Amino acid sequence: MTKIAVAVTGASGSIYAKVLLEKLQALSSQVDEVSVVWSDNARMVWEHELGNKDYEKIPFKNWEKNNFLAPFASGSSSYSALIICPCSMGTLGRIAGGISNDLVTRAADVMLKERRKLICMVRETPYNLIHLRNMTAVTEAGGIICPATPSFYSNPVTADDIAYTVVQRALQLAGLKPDGYKWGE
Description:
This is Flavin prenyltransferase UbiX. InterPro entries: Flavin_trans-like, Flavoprotein, UbiX-like. Its EC number is 2.5.1.129. Residues 3-172 form the Flavoprotein domain. By secondary structure, the protein is an alpha/beta fold. The chain has a single domain (2-173), classed as 3-Layer(aba) Sandwich (Rossmann fold). It has helices at 14-26, 42-50, 89-96, 103-113, 129-140, 159-173; strands spanning 2-8, 31-38, 61-63, 81-87, 117-122, 144-145. It has a 6-stranded parallel beta sheet with strand order 3-2-1-4-5-6, sandwiched between helices. Strand 5 (117-122), helix 5 and strand 6 (144-145) form a beta-alpha-beta unit. The chain is globular and about 40 Å long. The model has no long low-confidence stretch (mean pLDDT 96).
């Protein structure tokens, strides 16, 4: 079984986090444990963008951003992946710079040092040169940049369907087998 940590940061794109957490619930036969950590602004952005506090209903273990006792803050844990969704450019910059000032960046550092999956669903447009260099640094360190850039060849209808085109890729990158459109299949 797989243990996955999810970090939700204050970047725009709360719909991606919502869909990711819903899909992880649906994949309970593939996932043994899910833990969630929220940045300072993540819940505020969720409420602004989605118009609700449904994050309070998420059935997974939630960790405070300064609680370094979370199991995924240590390389001795058996967490296999961290998905940062959405990943703000500030968070990405701190990861690229090796700054572990909270549970999100510490967990990212752990995933990189242990050669486990770090998937950063970056959400910004356009990118500036600093963003691109930070993406390069994280990629060179072993992380995966999975931009929150949806695809449309599956003919998505709803906003959730559109978000799922990216979430599905992140779940696949984490080693899971989600349902959904696959090119040519």
